[in-house]
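Re: that chain you flagged

S.,

Sorry for the slow reply, it's been a week of failed gels. I finally had a moment to sit down with the sequence you sent. For the record, here it is as I used it:
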Amino acid sequence: MQSKLSDIELIKLSLKGNQSAYADLVKRHQCFVFTLAMRFTKSREDAEEVAQDCFVKAFRSLESFKQESKFSTWLYSIVYTTAMTSLRKKRLDTSSIDDEETYIQIENVSSGYDTDNAENKSRSFYLNQAIEQLTPDDATIITLFYKGEQSLEEIAQTLGIEANSVKVKLFRARQRLKEKLERNLKYEVKELI
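Prediction finished late last night. Pasting the structure tokens below so you have them in one place:
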């Protein structure tokens, strides 16, 4: 059974023409690749397209993987560059969360009627909601560090920056995430009081 093989063993089999070995690699990493792509694109369709492009690019470049880092780090760097390229091509209209009009829209959405109160009260819901409100760079660093469980050095390799820069960016991203959570949960606290 190939799914018990390491990433490196699956890569070696893939390079020998074993398509099911690469399919196992895709299955192993597809959820996180999609999550990371979603953090950038904010659209399910765009994230699916970015994720698919990433796996195609990774397959075509598999021979260039030098095993100097984990396969996941190498793959996530492909996700990062592919997502950034996609965003540049689409020239998305990005507006700051601090923009009054955007804040009013978010406020109206969160203060509206809830169809599934149990889901809306869960920690992961609010955490994901707050992460979605971060910039793509902040969301990426938070996602790689906490959900991807990557070290500062691995994130540095993925993003092509120094580990010390990642540490500073992670600290700042945590601060902004805290602010978003406090803002989003302000209404929940009022309901409980």
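What I noticed first: Confidence is low (pLDDT under 50) at residues 92-121.

Talk soon,
D.
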